[in-house]
Design brief:
alpha+beta; 8-stranded antiparallel sheet; 8 helices
């Protein structure tokens, strides 16, 4: 059983790891005084998933992900046998879990501690110059790009929560387009329908606050016409883990998909995709022209308390 002072994570290696994880979460909830709060416990457990377990958890229903009784039953139903944990085919490592002390602080302040900071895309050793902070500059088509200096980056604010949510941009070039979102080029399913082997993609861009039907407008334009793209925009698609890692999550045909971030083009435009290999093949991209983010996250500080955190990486400041 894990020591409660060590990092807690669950990667989906099998029944033994599952039993140990559930027991550790129960003990931690008791120690935190939250043993009778299934919503809080579920939120804490969701922040501990990594690797293939993380992707599995994002496809669960909202009710299951928000109730520890349902979530723990789903875990036991899923992991009935021990199995070897195989690394992702891409060889990209899963980010380490945040320390228990940090998880305690951030999870106990879910509804009370909004955060501000800068988002950083880490492309690792593959075209490392392509990575950097998400810039305020969008280029001629409204697609967000990367920059090396946070002085020229978008500054963001959000309140941590378990479900996909909005991320507000505090320094947008146009006040009404004050949220971080993603826009599809067209309504064609090849651009909009995510799935295991999908070529679908959406470009990071500025979007408006969603209306009562959840619809947002974006600044993304068509290069050929100069007019807004015809595809839909997405806004409340962000999940920020307690270690600062930012994961875009979308729902399509009743399933939830955790997406990947890629950076490509001369201006290092940022896109989110469902399947990197399928996307790169469809658009005739390769490792010399397109970089898959190793991590996207925020180096963060809470407004009331500093946390050293480390794909999107949030860089938080007071």
């Amino acid at each position: 059983m894990q020591n409660l002072e060590e990092p807690v994570s669950f990667r989906g290696q099998g029944a033994a790891e599952c039993e140990d994880f559930v027991s550790t979460v129960n003990r931690y909830a008791w120690k935190a005084g939250k043993a009778n709060d299934p919503k809080w416990i579920a939120g804490f457990a969701m922040s501990c998933f990594a690797g293939k377990a993380l992707r599995w958890s994002m496809q669960l229903s909202t009710d299951t992900r928000g109730d520890w009784n349902l979530l723990s039953n789903a875990l036991f139903s899923k992991y009935t046998e021990d199995e070897e944990d195989v690394p992702p085919a891409s060889g990209i490592p899963t980010p380490a879990a945040a320390p228990i002390a940090e998880l305690t602080r951030s999870m106990s302040n879910l509804s009370l501690a909004p955060r501000i900071g800068w988002i950083k895309v880490d492309t690792g050793s593959n075209r490392p110059y392509a990575g950097g902070y998400i810039s305020r500059h969008t280029g001629s088509t409204g697609i967000l790009t990367t920059c090396s200096d946070p002085e020229f980056a978008i500054q963001v604010r959000w309140t941590p929560q378990a479900n996909p949510h909005l991320i507000e941009i505090m320094n947008p070039p146009i006040p009404t387009f004050s949220y971080l979102g993603a826009a599809h080029f067209s309504n064609d399913k090849s651009y909009t329908q995510f799935g295991p082997k999908s070529t679908a993609s959406a470009s990071l861009t500025y979007v408006t606050a969603p209306d009562t039907l959840g619809r947002s407008a974006s600044l993304r334009t068509d290069t050929r016409t100069g007019k807004p793209v015809t595809g839909p925009s997405r806004s409340a698609v962000w999940v920020v883990l307690t270690d600062g890692t930012v994961i875009p999550v979308v729902e399509d045909s009743g399933s939830r998909y955790a997406l990947h971030t890629v950076v490509w083009g001369e201006d290092n435009s940022i896109f989110i995709v469902g399947n990197c290999e399928s996307y790169m093949t469809a658009f005739r991209l390769n490792a010399s022209t397109c970089s898959r983010a190793v991590r996207t996250a925020v180096n963060s500080q809470m407004l009331l308390e500093i946390h050293n955190t480390t794909d999107f990486l949030f860089d938080f400041r007071h």
